[in-house]
Amino acid sequence: MKRVSLLVGLAICTILGAAARASAYTELCPAVATPLHALDAVAPDGAGTTFSYDLYALSPETVSGTLAVQTDGGWYEAPFGPTALIEHDEKYSIWDTNFTRRNFYSAPLYVRFPTAVNTKYQFISKITTDDSMYAWPTKTDLQCEWAGAPLDLPRAHPTKYDLFALPTHAALLASPPPASPIPLAVMSKELNGLSCPVPFRPSAMEHRVQPEYPAAAADSVRKVNVSVIAASVNKGAVTDDWLFAPSSIGLLNDSTLKAAEASTYVPGISRCRAVPTLYIFYAGFAGYGTN
């Protein structure tokens, strides 16, 4: 029996690297901040004052800038850098596909809040980079936008759903080095002062198109396969897309690309305006002989 299952995930743009199918890799901000981890969480609600995080990018670079964090007490901002992002390859596993991706991470960074808070979302609001791969203007404060929750791909790892079990992230669990300066977060007048009805809203799918099951591929599929597609969209229409974690069967990859292109999306809102967003479009195919 042939089956197609579909799952669409939404992600902040800069977590994605890909094998290009269309014009090029897409990067809407030079780096992205990973979720904050409380180093001094206090029961019962887990609030803390000191947090660790690191930065992720698609290429080696040195960056500095401002981290924006939404907490249960409002938006805060704190400076970071300059800090270098270096290569750390990681193994990923999505259904039947295992692959290795080149990632670039910073050393652990820290931020301290004046009172205990629970964090919700974070993004880099301003950044300066020396990256040349993506033709970013260097030595300039670039403004980045919040576009939803960051992507967390399952890894091919015994504790593949535990981000902090990965070697590149293990140091985030440790206390800051002695005498290490930790920036103090301050309330953001800009982000807390936005007066529109919906200053921030995550992106969402408007209409999903089911991938077609290619008849020529049915006999070659004996278990669940997956094509993972990243679609860069603006104002609901797909403007660029490429294979993110392809299967070994080209016909299934092409079918998922077509479905991602035909689907429509609602862009996220950041600072009261719609912003381009990257979406992760998953399709699972089951061939004959499966249950």
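^ that was protein a. below is b, sequence first then the tokens
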Amino acid sequence: MPVSSRPIDEIAAALSLAESEYEPCGDAVGKIVLEPVMAKPRRPGALYVDVTAMTPTPFGEGKTVTTVGLSMGFRAIGRRAVACIRQPSLGPLFGLKGPSGGGACRVVPEDDFALHLTGDAHGVSMAQNLLAAFADNHVARGNELDLDPEKITLPRVIDINDRALRDVLVGVSDKSAGYPRRTRFEISASSEVMAVLALAGGMVDLRTRLGRIVVGPSRAGAFRTAEDLKAAGAMAALLMRAVRPNLCMTAERTPVFVHAGPFANLAHGNSSVLADQAALRLADVVVTESGFGSDLGFEKFVDIKCRASGLKPDVAAVVVTLRALKMHGIGRTFRSGVGATVPDECVRENREALERGLANLARHLSIVERAGVPAAVIVNRFPQDAAAEIAFVKEKAVALGAGSAAESRAFAEGGAGAAEAAQAVLAAAEAGRRRGRAFRHLYDLDAPLAAKVTTLATGLYGAGSVSFSDAAKASLERFEAAGFGSLPVCVAKTPLSFSGSPLLLNAPSGFDLAVSDARLYAGAGFVTVLVGEISSMPALPSRPRGERIEIDAEGRITGLL
């Protein structure tokens, strides 16, 4: 049964929010009113914590559980804390995995959090699809901008996994439809408008970024934008309320900001700049989450999000599990999906596999170290985990360079079970201050786009080389010629390996990172490079989770969580 929600007024009061500083959306959800909140100064000494992880397995390692748990753990030790997390996408919800969090680390109201919340993702989809409609209509109505119909790059989006929409033909119904052309749909979580929402510094910045979104080139090669099509104002109107972070709560009544939902393997994988900035004005500790491992979400947090926000993290919490370390130590993947169980080899005590898998953690810690951020390793404990193995991992983590290490029992015990982990995060942050750690980005924006990718591949992932397809080379050269060479890069690749292959586990080295394509996201402010066969429209599995979801006559949903 869902936890009964405390009135949102009480959650707002815990953050000292005045009535004018939030807008109730029913009894248990609110919207932060940005103008008065952003006018406040940052709370003195507010701690900014980023939660990242080792390379995950298909079974999930509980990073959101740890993010939510840490916020409750900080509250348990007397700190006013806020967790900042992304809104779940409906695609994975009905496909392979449930909403983030769980156990005692639930975000409530649970059904609203998992499904539509306040409709922000739908606003994102509508805004991007409106721009796509404007582009096709412009060409059909005389094409004053001389858009090249064959080279329109802007996709339509939908927040559902649907492989049939990866490659579609539009404009074929009748003569009034305009012209037939090939295009694609992407999942809304990987869309440029979602990235814009997550990186915008406010409504004015959102409107400006929307105007910069490139639709495609003219026949002469000049990029045409949403501003050129006069669509940006209407797009901004659709996102007028979506720009405000959502105020929710944990099962223990700790405030949670839920805002934006970019995937970390396809997009930049972090909740919004605005949520973090607002939270730092209201709380003593802000725990924000970056998707997947440090090679994806954390790197993009450092090189994309922090550049947009101007914020610098005080410490990174690196989530590990014994079963993930063992799987990487064993070196092969296992069946996943609905009904799949974690193999016994990854559950029973297996010190040999555990020790081999520490190579994966070591590389992730080196990435965090390279950014000048102190690290606390948090072992997310599962019921079958052996105490001796947890103690072994904690000892080894400190030897590998972590400032501290602790286990978290937040899934089972809530804030009380995360208090030790919260103390470890504080200890790592303090140790980093004593050592004079200086935060730094992982590459120079003045470097060519291809060089930035190579820096990440060889310096962070362990690649021996990077190969660019002819299409990728041509795109990067075209972007640089148009003045976009100083943008950061967003690598879209599998989250299950440092490499481009999900089968290459642990800490591979010397491999070639094959870049297949590149896309310009001028509104978001980055260039995405696609590695291997990665697709921006996921597919449903053979047995989608949606088959389990039902609703009864009283409106109770089952199978959702």
